[in-house]
Amino acid sequence: VNIKELLNKLTTEEKIGQLLQIAPFFFVKEAEIEVQGEVKDLYLSSKKIFLSGSVLGIRNAEEMIKIQKLYLERSKHQIPLLFMADIIHGYETIFPVPLALSCSWNPKLAYDMARISAVEAQTSGIHVTFSPMADLSRDPRWGRVVEGFGEDPELIKAFVEQMVYGYQQKNVKDEGNIASCVKHFAAYGAIEGGRDYNTVDLSRLSLYQTYLPGYKAAIDAGAKLIMTSFNVVDGIPATINKHLLRDILRDQWKFEGVTISDYDSLHQVVDHGCAAGDEEASLLGIQAGLDIEMASSCYVRYLAKQIEDHEVEIGLLDEAVGRVLTLKEELGLFDNPYKGASIEKELVLVRSKEHLEASKKIALESAVLLQNNGALPLNRKLKVALIGPYSKLKTTNGPWSWHGNNDLNHSLESTLISGGVDLIYVSSAENESELNANDSNELEKADLVIVAIGESIRESGEAHSKSMLDIPRNQASLVRLAKKMKKQVVVVLYNGRPLCLDTILEADSILETWFLGSMANEAIALLLTGKKSPSGKLTMSFPRNVGQIPVYYNHLTTGRPKVEGHYNEYVSYYLDVENSPLFPFGHGLSYATFTYEGLTVSKEKMNPSEQMTVSIRVKNNSEIEALEIIQLYRRDYVSKIAKPVKELKQFKKEHFKPFEEKTISFELSIKDLTYINDTGENVYEYGKFQIMVGPSSIDTQNIDIVLIKED
Ligand code: GLC
User: Residue whose CA is closest, atom 7 of ligand 1?
Assistant: First the structure.
């Protein structure tokens, strides 16, 4: 369809309607209420509803088909509705939450997850997913760290890019593909105090270097939409922030896709105190470059008059509506408004066996073995007792898994038993005070106790920030009890954020499983029994206590660095806790034992147009087949602006057979030595760099190289 021609046929009111996104129950009363946030009256007449451009949160194919049909029957220009939803880590087949997935350090798995999510979601008539969430965060008090990919820009970029490819593939028009809407633009993860929706206040340098790269990676990978965030940037709400939406997004990044607000975040500009009312919000939004207004009605109530009174240039409206119509054209909706929606296919494709298998494979690579003093893998001859709330709980889908059904999942008890473990289930008690004498007797009979504990799925995700990060509800008392009984103790953690684990360190082993989705406990049983070795590594630091936050690996040295083991009173440290995190970025154990040696570089010096090869020998010194994640960090010793003590630049995940030894090589080029300055440009400075390679951010072999001028 010719977008220009179509646009010229539309009245101003019809154009503005395309910028409105509302929930399905505005069309069909009995449609299920699924969206987040309180549902407000949007003062919409039936006419306005049937002029809207897109729908937020559709439940299934039948509902989509019904609404699309009802809508088109009343649409003069036959412009189909666009259906969008939050498919964050799976549709009906639920995958590990993104924070868990990032710990696999295997972006290919992100592609697989997005691919399967798209195939399932589009059978239900979904055209756009509000994913990937590219918000970097260094603050585990924030409930939404569960939706992101951790504290490092490089890792976030690698995962976000693959998610976009997985959703969209080459052409979003093709069957099985959905458009990706990256979010939340921008720097939502930098909220003060980790308190959701709170103020963000950071330098341009920090914005460009740390917080923007993830969104840019999605845009560069071709994401069709980007969603504005609830927070301010430079004191201006992101939803009406021209610097973000025009200078950066359009002028610098050449983005041509659609911008969409977050849930009623255009109206919230009034709550921010940056508009006197919805009328001013409407003016500010269209001028800043906001296209679709989600779940509020500033545009539909005020924009027409603002255009009539020449307060708003009609060109701005045509630009925004043109982008929305172009997206509908790119999705092929004018030819087929129902795209892939199919009630029959929905029954067959969603939550299929192979999709579940794929989810299990990803779960196996996303768990992180934090500590292991020999209790894992489980010794088959041992009598094992199982205790704690997650012994029988099936709620492993985690936050943002609307369409998943936890009831279809299996409990840890059932998967351990079917995994051949000689298991006694003792109790789902949260802590020692809930146990009775019989429970203690049962525990007595066991050689080893598995303590399955963690957060409920309502303790992380949106609007679920915490000021304390201890293991909740005194669950740690179960570990203490089992240790008092001289048992070996294995803690299996289910949680949506890094927690303070100081109260369970006496456990022999700690397996961090986050929320691994539909096949969580199948994967956990395979890992605990040693059929598979854990291979995940942390992408977010675990603080020793909340007071340390923000604690992250790629920090600056400061002018008074604390040198471990060297006493000096006047340096940067706390009187009551070490500077280092309890478990650092890149940390994760395996059942295999690896040695790293012989770090070499193919040349000591290189100029900006050259490359060099960095190699290291990695040996699996065990009879266990395992995966290992080799990380390459760099440090720029001296430059105009202070630089982090290390920054991840490359990583490789390699498979090792028993006793296999490999030379792992990285091709280093100028892109590994550049940094982003406070105007967003990639720059570099000549001089000495340190290259560090190893199994975690705190365990590396190091070598110096020099970047020299081209002769
Ligand atoms: C929510 C979230 C956003 C989500 C949107 C639609 O408030 O902030 O991530 O995509 O609303 O549900």
Answer: 263
What CA–CA distance (Å, rounded) separates 232 from 524? 40
| Best residue among 181, 462, 464, 465 to mutate for probing ligand 1, ranked by most atoms within 8 Å of CB | 462
Ligand 1 neighbour 130 (Cβ under 6 A): yes
SS3 call for 632: strand
Residue 128: closest CA among 345, 317, 358, 333: 333
- Pair type for strands 594-601 and 626-636: unpaired
Which residue among 86, 135, 262, 672 is the active-site one? 262
**Which ranges of the chain have pLDDT less than 70?**
30-40
Q: How far apart are CA 454 and CA 493, in angstroms?
A: 5
State the Cα–Cα distance between residues 265 and 9, nearest whole angstrom: 30
pLDDT value of residue 402: 85
Q: How far apart are CA 556 and CA 323, in angstroms?
A: 42
Residue 37 CB less than 6 A away from ligand 1 = yes
Strand partners, 668: 612
DSSP 595: E
Q: In angstroms, rounded to a whole number, what is the distance separating the alpha carbons of residues 618 and 370?
A: 21
DSSP per-residue letters across 574-602: -SSS-SS-SB-TT--B-SS-EEEEEEEES
Please choose, from the candidates 236, 227, 216, the residue with its C-alpha nearest in 3D space to the C-alpha of residue 293: 227
Among protein residues, the one whose CA lies closest to atom 8 of ligand 1:
262
**Which of these, 503, 522, 379, lies nearest to 451 by C-alpha position?**
503
The dihedral sign for the CA sequence 241, 243, 249, 251: positive
Sequence length of the chain is 711
Q: Are 86 and 129 in contact (CB under 8 A)?
A: yes
Cβ atoms 208, 233 nearer than 8 A: no
Regarding the beta carbon of 86 and ligand 1, being less than 6 Å apart is answered yes
Helix 278-288 to helix 298-308 angle (10° resolution) is 80
- Atom of ligand 1 minimally distant from the CA of 183: 9
